[in-house]
Amino acid sequence: MLKALLRPFSRVAGNGTPSESAGTDYAVDLRKVVKQFQTAAGVFTALKSVDFRVTPGEFVGVIGKSGSGKSTLINMITGIDRPTSGEVYVAGTPVHTLSEGQMAVWRGRHLGIVFQFFQLLPTLSLADNIMLPMDFCGMYHPGERYARALELLDLVGMADQAQKLPSAVSGGQQQRVAIARALANDPPILIADEPTGNLDSRTADSVFELFESLISRGKTILMVTHDNDLAKRVTRTIILSDGEIIEQYLARAFPALDEDQLVWATRRLETRRFEPGALIIRHGEPADSFYLITRGKVEVFITGPYGQELQVAAMHAGQYFGEVELLAGGPRIATVRAGHDTGVEVAAIDAETFRQMTDESVATRREIEETVQARIEENRAASEQARESAGGQS
User: Fold this and answer.
1) β-pairing verdict for 236-241 and 59-64
2) Structure pTM?
3) Are 162 and 125 in contact (CB under 8 A)?
4) C-beta of residue 367 within 8 angstroms of C-beta of residue 256
5) DSSP assignment, residue 311?
6) C-alpha closest to that of 92 among 192, 20, 33, 31
7) Helix, strand counts (H, E) of the chain
8) 268 CB contacts (<8 Å, ≥6 apart)?
9) DSSP, res 287
10) DSSP states of 90-104 as a string?
């Protein structure tokens, strides 16, 4: 039943049909998006050349202070507003090119939106609230809509309340119904704007668990939240600051950097992608960059006591490498390759940016120095173990 109720992600073209020629494989793909507003004080830039992508099946949290651009970002993705410049693709559709009429129908069929304040119509029953998007978009045969509404209410644990008005159930129950309504037309992507903002912690947790169950069934969810505890439970976090995205792994790796320093460093990141097994840095070469892993993994090798290559580590998203030589000086002491089965995406920082970042944050420099020392000790231990193993075999 659930398999029929909720479809997996598929790309769609502007007319709402599955498409193999759609412009992107990402569920959400923003390319150099700028949004400006004209105010009495002049032009205000709410989003500043924002680039980010969400892959199908991800649960992405969007966090940031009030006024950071979170609502504007959501409005770009849902088509409620248009970018001043840049491109927005959602489920393969270039939504920035759709007319208002096309957008309304497309949004109803391919996006599910969950609001902070539920937005249930007070004079309609819970079941009727769920059937309304089906009617508006002409989805499903009229005779099937009520049965589908009941199935969705059952999915969120509210089937026995189907004929009640919204005022007759609690806030947490209304939010569950709002999620069921967002699923009415079986969209591949859900956008949730502060969905737990008006709920107590226990109810918020139950709503979050419902989102997690939807992810397990193939949905993609982008959620704006101010709750840092909930934000830690998503697949990935987008951090907004004054209209710019801060690289989440940079923020996690170096918590001592303040927001201004993180924005400054993020602007200087260069994304690089390597195929499985590809060489990233080679032992003995000059050191010119620091690398932060954003997807996939890398394998780290050193030269053993008899010239053999020894793998000493495998690193994954959120970890970094290339810092040893930038701090201590000298050529590379290890060889690093993209994971042989996954490939890797990294954010590279040039040596000068790395130097400025560590000079301006003493705490960050100390954190990295501790990591450097630990890795040098690990390399020595691996080399000594190889020497002993070779000696025992001779």
Assistant:
1) parallel
2) 0.71
3) yes
4) yes
5) E
6) 20
7) 13, 17
8) 349, 350, 353
9) P
10) ETTEEGGG--HHHHH
Q: Are 171 and 199 in contact (CB under 8 A)?
A: yes
Amino acid at 268: R
- CB under 8 Å to 93, separation ≥6 — which residues? 12, 13, 14, 22, 106, 110
pLDDT, one tens digit per residue, over 48-89 is 999 888 999 999 999 888 888 998 999 999 998 999 999 999
309 to 27, 103, 304: CA distances (angstroms):
40, 57, 6
Shortest CA distance to 193 belongs to which of 290, 116, 291? Answer: 116
**Tens digits of per-residue pLDDT, 268-314?**
899 899 999 999 999 999 999 999 998 899 999 988 777 788 888 89
Over residues 171-227, the pLDDT tens digits come to: 888 888 988 898 888 888 999 888 877 777 777 787 788 888 889 888 999 998 877
The 8-class DSSP code of residue 12 comes to: B
Domains of the chain: 2-246 (3.40.50.300), 260-393 (2.60.120.10)
For 88, residues 6+ apart whose C-beta sits below 8 A from its C-beta are 29, 30, 31, 33, 76, 77, 79, 94, 95, 96
Pairing of strands 59-64, 220-224: parallel
Distance CA 103, CA 14 (A): 9
Structure tokens at 162: 């189907």
Residue type, 137: C
Name the residue type at position 245: I
Q: Distance between CA atoms of 221 and 205, rounded to whole angstroms?
A: 16
Cα separations in angstroms, 174 against 111, 121, 154: 19, 11, 14
**C-alpha to C-alpha distances, 364 to 51, 268, 296, 371, nearest whole angstrom:** 26, 17, 25, 11
